[in-house]
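Sharing in case it's useful to others searching the archive later.

Someone asked me privately for the predicted structure of Dipeptide/oligopeptide/nickel ABC transporter ATP-binding protein, so I'm posting the question and my answer publicly. Question first, with the sequence:
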Amino acid sequence: MILTMDKVTIRSREKTIVDEVSLTVHEGEWFALVGQSGSGKSLLSQAAGRMLPPNLQMEGHIRLHGQDLLSLSARQMRDIRGRRLAYVFQDYQGSFTPFRTIGQHLDEYQKVHGITPGAVRKQQGMEALESVGLEAELYRRYPFQLSGGQLQRVSIAMALMLSPDVLIADEVTTALDSVSGHRILELLAHKQRETGCAILFITHDWRHVRRYASRLAVMQEGRIVETGGKHRILDHPRHPYTRQLIQATPMLHKPGHLLPSGLQEVRGQ
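And my answer, the predicted structure tokens:
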């Protein structure tokens, strides 16, 4: 086990958003957390890095290699984020400051984590870009000069630059077209094989789950309703909510199969 969540609860003043969720991610695996919008899956992923909004309260335990992250100071968590636990978000554009070059972003990321020789940072930054299929000359460009797919690749390069144990990928293809999204997921799969990192993959798209995940958990209204191996859940879902989501997903049900009443809104969310 590399990342464990034990009875994690997240509350606002008005309601409980995540209710005693427990899950385990093993070393080197691609673990998918699946659910509709509003199920709490993204908040749960943010909780792992202690990145929740200040108006939310959290209880429970989150451990990385057995170390309870919720007991660490803010400074200790800053050291862990990036080095041992890294993120790639769907809002890739929000990760970049428009008036700073790509190289400056990569340089600052390394500098924050104690890599001090400037020449080393520059070399590693260029190598990071090349490792995700980008030309090193993009190092001098500004974010607005790159396409959405290129910026998401830069995000992945930055997240994997310091060889984290766990990469949390939160709806990383949502803002991309289908071709760019496919390329990003293929890149993630390649980098996972290359680095051996575990991936916690937050998604609502069962087609991605079928192609990439090894295990998964299904989340409904803040609770885990089913967890297990990919093939078992896709072929023999036990919970009614899981069956509904799978049946409502294009290309995962038989051609001509009618969707259950009231599930049209689930499609594509």
